[in-house]
Write a structure and sequence with these properties.
mainly alpha; 302 residues; globular
């Protein structure tokens, strides 16, 4: 990896890690629905002129139906879920659950596309979801009087969001292979805006938020969605999708750092341990790390 590519990978991780901070800063004043709606609307307004300037509007128009479905699965539902989670749990905790996206992606590809994982990938799935159960069981205290119901729903929302990300990956592979990335990114934000705009107007806050929450919305839409998509697709073109996926392992660290620095969020031993377990499973699933010894002895070929 060239120094420029490594710099862009770290920058992208810092930006996407910062999205959990901005969600926390804007969710209380806007509410989950309005915050998610403004995020995709702002990203659409940012990306659309770039798409037109690159002459890729015809590609979006040809594939608009499939892109619209991907937009709902990859933006509208996950952004709404993470905005809701920001009302109840820390940004670092949301980011750790966000790191399970490749696990869901492999499960959905297995069930739908018949892409059966084998060997160490199956072990990685078991390890990753064991980490999820450990972390969720610790943070979602459902004992009577414990007051963990809000946290449990927030954790469920995070896992639903990552499940949707995994579904969107399979949809993209199945129906949108070869579509220009900018057409896919812009179209997905436009379709998410169409879905969320009526809900946003219905759930608009009674009292207009101040400059701080609006700045958080602008950062979410322009930086964490618009600029981040451009960086991500640049990385895929430069170093390949597998290496670009390495950003998944860096996001929780940045999210916990930003939350601790600006919001005073604490990181306990369970979060660190479960995060390590989840990322170990994810690295096995994606193939970014693989033990040198074979899981089973090789069978002789006829």
């Amino acid at each position: 990896m060239k120094p420029r590519d490594l710099t862009e990978l770290l920058l992208l991780a810092a930006i996407w890690g910062g999205s959990f901070l901005f969600l926390r800063l804007g969710a209380a004043d806007f509410g989950a629905v309005a915050l998610a709606g403004l995020r995709v609307l702002g990203a659409s307004l940012f990306l659309l002129p770039i798409l037109l300037q690159r002459g890729e509007w015809p590609a979006l128009r040809r594939h608009w139906r499939a892109i619209a479905v991907v937009g709902v699965a990859n933006s509208a539902i996950p952004f709404l879920c993470f905005a809701y989670a920001a009302l109840h749990i820390t940004g670092g905790l949301s980011a750790i659950f966000n790191a399970t996206t490749p696990l869901w992606g492999v499960l959905i590809a297995w069930a739908w596309l018949k892409d059966r994982p084998g060997g160490w990938r199956l072990v990685g799935l078991a390890i990753g979801f064991a980490g999820v159960l450990w972390l969720a069981g610790d943070k979602a205290d459902l004992r009577p009087g414990a007051g963990g119901g809000g946290a449990a729903l927030a954790i469920g929302a995070c896992l639903l969001a990552t499940l949707m990300y995994g579904l969107a990956a399979s949809l993209t592979k199945r129906f949108l292979t070869g579509v220009p990335p900018m057409a896919l990114a812009t179209g997905s934000q436009l379709s998410a805006t169409v879905v969320l705009a009526p809900l946003m107007l219905w759930q608009w806050p009674a009292q207009l938020p101040g400059p701080g929450p609006w700045a958080a919305v602008a950062a979410l839409a322009l930086l964490c969605t618009g600029v981040a998509y451009i960086l991500y697709f640049r990385l895929i073109a430069a170093i390949g999708a597998t290496h670009a996926l390495g950003v998944t392992y860096l996001i929780p660290a940045f999210a916990m750092a930003w939350g601790g620095l600006f919001l005073g969020e604490t990181v306990d031993a369970t979060m660190v341990g479960a995060c390590a377990v989840i990322l170990a499973g994810t690295s096995l699933v994606t193939g970014l790390w693989r033990p040198r010894w074979p899981l089973a002895p090789a069978r002789p070929r006829p």
